[in-house]
Amino acid sequence: MKYFGYVALFLITNFAGLYFGSILMNEGPSSAWYLLLNQAPWTPPGWVFGIAWITIMLCFSFYLASLIRIIDSVNFWAIYTVQCILNISWNYVFFNLQKTVAGLIIISLLTVVMVFYFYKFKNQQLKYTKYLLSPYILWLFIASSLNLYIVIYN
Q1: Structurally, how many domains does the chain consist of?
Q2: SS3 labels along the chain
């Protein structure tokens, strides 16, 4: 498959994952449970989340399209599947089940997977492409801090 075919594939799967995750979180950020939580003072306004995730998934899709062309297919799909499961399941566990500690564990594992992507696959072909992961990793650190704040102060 050509590069832009992979980009299209990952755009579809990544945005489908976001959509599925949003369905699983039920009312999510607008739920009474979430709104009544003691939230971190640095919690961004709701509209930031949409912009952040669109940017993240665009960058991640281009990164994945580059990565799949240079690593073993089995390893690629295994890591990508774990990343998708963690990303989608956080929504369900945190918002729907209201399990903030379990959510923190999931988002921490997701952060580890994304940092693994960044440091593990650093050959010449991905020399600069790996920086497309930066928005995702940065957002995960912010989201983890928000989740940790909720765990500590609620």
Answers
A1: 1
A2: CCHHHHHHHHHHHHHHHHHHHHHHCCCHHHCHHHHCCCCCCCCCCHHHHHHHHHHHHHHHHHHHHHHCCCCCHHHHHHHHHHHHHHHHHHHHHHHHCCCHHHHHHHHHHHHHHHHHHHHHCCCHHHCCHHHHHHHHHHHHHHHHHHHHHHHHHC
**Pairwise CA distance, residues 61 & 9, whole Å:** 8
- Report whether 72 contacts 123 (CB < 8 A): no
Judged by DSSP in three states, 145 sits in helix
Model-wide pTM > 0.85 = yes
Question: What amino acid occupies position 91?
Answer: N
Q: Which domain holds residue 131?
A: 3-153
CATH of the domain at 16: 1.20.1260.100
How does pLDDT run across 124-143, given as a tens digit for each residue?
778 899 999 999 999 999 99
